[in-house]
Structure formats: structure tokens, C-alpha cells
Amino acid sequence: MDNPEEWEIIEPISRNSKCSVNSVLVNGDKFISKQYFKTPLKRECLKLKKLKGLELKEVDIIRKEYNLMKKIQNSRTIDVFSLVDYGTSIYLLLEYGGDPLGTDNIQDTRRYAIQDVLIWMVQLTQGLKIMHDQGIIHGDFKPSNVLLLPNGRDIKICDFGSSIENVDDTRPIDKIPKCTPAYYSPELCEHSLNPKSMGIMGKPLDVWALGVTIYKLLFGVIPFNCSGTIFQLQYSIINDLIEIPNEVLDQNDLFISIPKNFIKILLALLDKDPNQRMTIQELEKSLEGV
Predict the structure, then answer these.
(1) Quick one: three-class SS letters along 69-94?
(2) From residue 88, how far is each of 20, 32, 58, 84, 244 by CA, in Å?
(3) How many other C-beta atoms are found inside a 10 Å radius of the C-beta of residue 143?
(4) Which helix (H) or strand (E) holds 123?
């Protein structure tokens, strides 16, 4: 299991300048291989040495993600099985969790039945609560980081490369997670436009991104104008009024009513004030009445 040359690539999933993700066969079983390239990792090590005086090897950076995944391992997050330092890359061998519920492409307008979205919302809340209770935030929550298991009913959260540990409810986070602009919270947009603005509290970032994710799964779009530049997107997130329709098209293109308490919950997740925004613990209790 610890020799990547023996892993048979089934299908490429994604690739960027830092890593490549593939579905692979290992000893006849299906897994996900997350391959990190050492060259960009080495640059990150040099950056951390310059900024913080840390002496790290490339594998140390990925070991942090591995250890975090082991720490939060539960039925709502993808399992990690091994960390392999091999040649010019470092690999994480992960549980195969199925297909993502969406992509980062704004042209992806797929939407799901409200009954399914409500079930997934409960499951996502369970997963995030386990993380938040341990002082960990996901940092890049979105549909493409939620996998639908082969049973077509259950989901799991994946990709913890942007996660932050030691998050305290009483003080701002020490660093800003590398999250996707369409899922930026208003306070994160303000910070992006003015880095000297007030500090960012960590857990409300996940809650906001969960709200945008649920809206996207239900309506096929995010609740903001994302057709222009990133600055126009940030302006929309900060200033535009959020409205939740009372009805949604079902899979047969027939209008179906959305429960009023569900709309109330979604608006509470998308409160622009992070101090007033619903917490994961409050969400768990509220979902009992939906």
C-alpha cells in the first residue's frame, strides 16, 4: 500500500500546480490518491523559515493535514489511510467517497431535491460540529468538498488542506484560510479589501460557507452576483440583500414550497454579522424542528 508505483490510476479527478488528485486501485480496492509535488512544498518551507524561523521538511507540511484528518475522523469526514514520501512527491491515500456534489465552475447549475438537501444539511452539521468542538475549522467549505457516497444517500466532507487548528471562540484566527472566493463571508471580503481591518473569527467562516453551500445545492446558484470581477463579487457579498425564495423547482420542474423554518435557518447562517450568525451548535438544535 505504501508504494505509489503499484497504484493503478483509474481516473484523474483534479490537478493544479501544487497537487494532483486521482482515483486509484490498490490491491484491488478503490481509493483516492492526493499527490503533492515537492517543489511548491519546498517553496512553502522556505517561506515559513523566513517568516517564522521554522525548520520544516516537505513531508512535515502534509503530515499536518494527515494528523488533522486522523484527529477528526468520524462518519461524516473522509478517512485517511497512509502518508507516503516517495520520489518527487508526497502522497495521501484516502477513502474513496464517491462524487462531489458540485464543482467550482459557476456554470455548474446542478440542483438537488429539497428532501435530499435537508438530509445532507443534518449530516454536514454533524461533521462540522465535531470539527468545531475540537477547535478546528474546515476553511474551504463548498459543494466540491462534499462527496456523495455510492449509496446515494449519505455524504462525507473532504479536502482539509485549508483547515486551521486551535481555533478559539474568544480571539481571531492567526491566519486566513485559502478558501474559494464565491464562499467568502462578508468579513473575509472586508479583510481582503482592507487587511488592516478587524481580526477574523474562525468558526463563523465555516457557518457562512455552509449557508452558501446549502443555497447552491438547492437553487443551483449562489445568492450573490458572481458574473463580474472578484471585486464585484466581494461588493455583492458585503452589500447585497439576501433573499430566500419561498418555492423551489423540484426534479420534475414543478414548484414545491420551502418550509418557513428552513428559510429562517438559512437566513441565520447567512447573517452578514459574524457575531449574530448562527453557530453550528445552534444549527444542530434548530434542525430538530425542520
Answers:
(1) HHHHCCCCECCEEEEEEECCEEEEEE
(2) 13, 19, 10, 11, 48
(3) 20
(4) helix 114-133
Give the E-state strand segments of 141-285 in sequence order. 146-148, 155-157, 247-249, 255-257
Catalytic: which of 104, 133, 140, 273? 140
Q: Is 159 a catalytic residue?
A: no
Closest by CA to 76, choosing from 104, 95, 103, 102, is 95
Q: Give how far the C-alpha of residue 103 lies from the chain's centroid of Cα atoms, to the nearest Å.
A: 12
Residues 6+ apart with CB under 8 A from 72: 130, 131, 134, 136, 160
Cell of 283: 444549527
Sign of the Cα torsion 233, 190, 125, 94 reads positive
Residues 240, 226: Cα–Cα separation, whole Å = 12
Give the model confidence (pLDDT) of 106-131 as tens digits: 788 899 999 999 999 999 999 999 99
Which CATH code is given to the segment(s) 4-95? Answer: 3.30.200.20
For the stretch 238-263, pLDDT in tens is 999 999 999 887 777 778 889 999 99
Longest C-alpha distance within the chain, in Å? 60
In terms of DSSP bridges, do strands 146-148 and 155-157 run parallel, antiparallel, or are they unpaired? antiparallel
Yes or no: say if 158 and 68 are a contact pair by the CB < 8 Å rule: no
For domain 99-289, give the fold.
Transferase(Phosphotransferase); domain 1 (1.10.510)
Q: Global pTM?
A: 0.92
Domains 4-95 and 99-289 belong to one CATH topology: no
